[in-house]
Amino acid sequence: MANPPPPLSPADIVGDAERYAALSGQREVDYDHVMLAVQSMQTQQGGNPVPLQEDLKTMAAARNEEPLPKPTGDPRMSTPTAVNMNTLQNNYRVLPPGAKKGGTGPSLG
After folding, report:
1. What is the pLDDT of residues 66-104, one digit of tens each?
2. Which residues does 35 contact at the CB level (< 8 Å), separation at least 6?
3. Is residue 77 a contact partner of residue 71, using CB atoms and an 8 Å limit?
4. Which residues contact 62 (CB under 8 A, 6 or more apart)?
5. Measured between alpha carbons, how far is residue 106 from residues 18, 93, 95 in Å?
6. How far, CA to CA in Å, does 65 sit from each of 39, 59, 60, 69, 109?
7. Where along the chain do its domains lie?
8. How far apart are CA 69 and CA 65, in angstroms?
């Protein structure tokens, strides 16, 4: 029975990402450098690679094509709306506490 590979070390990932940044002529590490470091470490350890950002966008677009299910009519499962959240009425104060309606406002002097 083979031993499981050691967990990915954040220090190793950052070090590899810094080397990838240096090799690409950049001074700062960006998202792509970190992803490349993680993917290369996982590949070396025999794990599944982390999906690339483009792959994630493709998967999200495919999932988002499916429509949401229709509401069931059960009030416990309803989606909040402007009507039942009381957002159509004034629910804020314009005047500071203690100010009289119709006054001239606070003095600036």
Report:
1. 887 776 667 676 666 655 566 656 656 666 777 776 655
2. 50, 52, 53
3. yes
4. none
5. 57, 15, 10
6. 29, 10, 9, 12, 60
7. 1-45
8. 12
Type of residue numbered 45: Q
Between CA 13 and CA 15 the distance in angstroms is 5
Report how far residue 12's alpha carbon sits from residue 89's, in angstroms, rounded to the nearest whole number: 56
Reference 39, options 59, 31, 61; nearest CA is 31
d(CA 32, CA 20): 9
CA distance 96 to 105: 10
What one-letter code names the amino acid at 51? P
